[in-house]
Amino acid sequence: MTVGTGGRSAALLAAAGATRAAYGALRRRPPGGAARWERKNYAGRTVTLHAGPAAALGTALAAAGAPGLPARARGAALAVLAAGACGAYDDLAGAGDPRRGFRAHLSALRHGEVTSGAVKLFGIGAAGLAAGALLKDRPADRLLAGVVIAGSAHLVNLLDVRPGRAAGAVVALAAPGLLRRGPAGPLSAVPLGAAAAVAGDDLGERTMLGDAGAHALGAALGLAVVAGNRRAGLAAHAAALVAAAAAGDRVGRLAGAL
Questions:
Q1: How large is the average pLDDT for residues 76-86?
Q2: Which of 54, 109, 228, 229 is 20 to 30 A away from residue 115, measured at CA?
């Protein structure tokens, strides 16, 4: 199904508008009180986590309504919401946990400790596979789609180490997808719109995406990639994302050892 530029613009504006509305609501009435949503950033400045849940909600709503998406695949947008929820749980429950990387959390799990990082790892993985099953028909394609969605979520989170870096990466990675035909175009516009909606406050060090926003935006990017690629493209993206995850895990462990 061909989707015109109007569909892309509508998806972008829907994501931006929903994200800003949610962001404003969270700033006015943060659940559990303001202190629960405050963190120190890399420079020691106090920032809020409001942008993360706002971006997750705005992205999920806009993805579910993206023009040209087959009816059965609209449920795949729940993967964005699930990724954001798992990230938010890690943001709130995992604060202060020095463990980083897959190996650290899997090692804790082997010793009977379920860390917030492990919940995030398995939760986002399961959500990606479920979304892949809705978007693709063949088992191999479904598996590759799940890897791409979960891997994209992890990649954006790896980049969320400085103000504006993750949001900027989302904009840069999503922009080429606007040229794709079919639902891939509007689906690419969704994370771009949501990231742009909070980028100013992120760069201004007033808020941060955190795991909630980074994982949700990344999952939405993954949905767009899956919608626009067949098996060969999915395999190439999956291989690159697995390699990036392995490299990121190694860098994280080295940084933790210093």
A1: 95
A2: 54
